[in-house]
Amino acid sequence: MSKLYFTRIYAGAIILGSILFQISCGNKDSRNDVLLAAESYELEIIDSVMIDYLGALSWSDISIDGKYILGYNYQNSDVLLFSTMGEVLGTFNKSGDQPDGIGGSALSRPQFVKENEWAILGSKGVYAYNFQGELTRTAKPGFSVSLSLTISNANILHFLDEDRALTHFMGRDESSTFYINPKSTQLEISDFKSGDFTASLPLPEGSKFKNPEKIHNLLTASPAMDIQNGNLYIAFKNEPKLWVYSLNDLEKPIKEINMLFDKFIQKDGISPDKAEDDNVGINIKDFTYGSIDKIITHNEMVLIHYTNGLTETEYNEVNEGLENPMDAFSAIFKMNKRKYAFLGDDGTIKPINLPENVGNIEFVDKDGIYWLSYNREEELDYELIFKAKLKAVE
């Protein structure tokens, strides 16, 4: 079931007075040059799709041909397959220890592998299924994942080709500490042909997480990454840097970009002798730091989803007069807002203004259409996802 909402409904979401570059779709090279040169951007909604589904749905991936979408219900661990016309094509639950199950709940968002195949990361490895939900292929590590150190539903599974995936799967060094090991590799390559995992990507030399004298907890170092044109783009959550690697050599980056934020609050590392190995406590202040949460690459452009973090003064202001911890969380998230921007090759931050009623930028399809989630401020009895075009703003 689908429904279209045309652009005129959202005319109020376009900032008045901005000058939008109207570029012919027939001249893609010229259009991309203008977009690359811009200093700020808007997303103009051109369409939307209504899906007859009600639940705690997060959007995960769009197929290469642009015909299918994967979603994930984090409350009941269902994986959902939709057509981009709004049809519900399948609902699959592969959690737990069932014969074709991933073990426990998902550790990554489900991703498309190839035509009629999708995959998901669980505690037992990477498992692939066809569009009927039947198990097709697996790749399993030779060690156990540290579940407490994995962020559920993270965007940490990316396919290099139809047989190999790059994933963040902690546990190879068999360490029980809540702090990152500066000597450990950060990613794994899973291979459906061999069925194995291989260690990959040591921390880059320019990273603060490489320093053995000041170690950091794993939540500050979780990766955000994407793959484009034979390169890996990766950042670590609480560090304002982007590294670019050739997929042919994941040992040493070919480029390091310092993100030139006006403000980016970083958490200090601690001396290794002060780390309590079995202390995995998380406190409210962990949500006040700057973060790089997601990277999306398309047509030589690098989009980042981030927060700037709160200063000590801002943090104290947020907590003033609050007694209920849940109220403090809400206040922190309201002040430490998530934002979107393109990252220039020189590190400049080029903001993206989102229309009203939009929650997040979820993915970009083969035609350069941006798919945006609904912000859920108004309760609906169906799921809604928007389609938008990127506009350069003068």
> Please, what is the oligomeric state?
single chain
How far apart lie the N and C ends? Answer: 39 Å
Quick one: overall form? globular
Tell me the strand order in the biggest sheet: 18-19-20-21-1-24-23-22
Pick out the low-confidence regions. 1-26
Radius of gyration over all CA atoms, rounded: 21 Å
Strand content: 35-45%
What letter string, H or E per element, gives the SSE order? HEEEEEEEEEEEEEEEEEEEHHEEEEE
Q: What's the helical proportion of residues?
A: under 10%
Helix/strand/pairing category: mainly beta
Tell me about the largest β-sheet. Answer: 8 strands, mixed
* Number of beta-strand segments: 24
Organism: Belliella pelovolcani
Protein name: 6-bladed beta-propeller protein
Write the layout of secondary structure elements.
Layout: H1 28-37, E1 40-51, E2 57-62, E3 68-73, E4 78-83, E5 88-93, E6 111-114, E7 117-122, E8 125-130, E9 135-139, E10 157-159, E11 164-167, E12 185-191, E13 197-202, E14 223-228, E15 231-236, E16 241-246, E17 255-258, E18 291-298, E19 301-307, H2 312-319, H3 325-335, E20 339-343, E21 349-353, E22 358-364, E23 370-374, E24 383-393
Parallel strand pairs: 1-21
Antiparallel strand pairs: 1-24, 2-3, 3-4, 4-5, 6-7, 7-8, 8-9, 10-11, 11-12, 12-13, 14-15, 15-16, 16-17, 18-19, 19-20, 20-21, 22-23, 23-24
Helix pairs in contact: 2-3
Protein name: 6-bladed beta-propeller protein
